[in-house]
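Worked problem 6 (solution included).
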Amino acid sequence: MMTDTPPSRDPALTAALAASGGTVTQFLEHLAGEPVDADILAQEKEPAGFDNVLGLEPGAPLLRREVLLTGRDTGRRFVYAESAIAADRLPGSLRNRLEQSREPIGRVLLDHRVGIRRTALAGSVVPRSTDGRVEALIRDAPLSRRYLIVSDGDPVIVVNEWFLAVVAETLASLPRK
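Solution. The predicted structure is:
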């Protein structure tokens, strides 16, 4: 059973993400040439614990999502992501859309014109899922990372994500500029 994954780096993929300047959703849709949806593997509301990166009071509402970012037309799986969302720090309409749709976080934030910044979090990227299928899926991920999304000075979302091999392969197949 995989319990700990050090952050991995694929230099070309890391550089392409940094150059994109947008959300992961935008990056993937541009790269793949198709819309990307969040296939929700698990989603639950739970109270925040005593030690959480979002700085929530214990017991505050927390929305956890496990998703596969998947091409709408081809069904290709691009990213496995786990997120912890400080539900009460987001506008109600944005929170409802995350709870009730297959929309990726990036698209929902853009559509609601929420200004954000990402802050990389140090340390290992540890999957919350204990599903063996998830372990097999992310085992050879060329890039994994963990970051905090901050809006209006408040941490609102923690994201752990694993870019699957198809992303690096698609990027490598593009003509060089």
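Discussion: The two ends are 41 Å apart (CA to CA).
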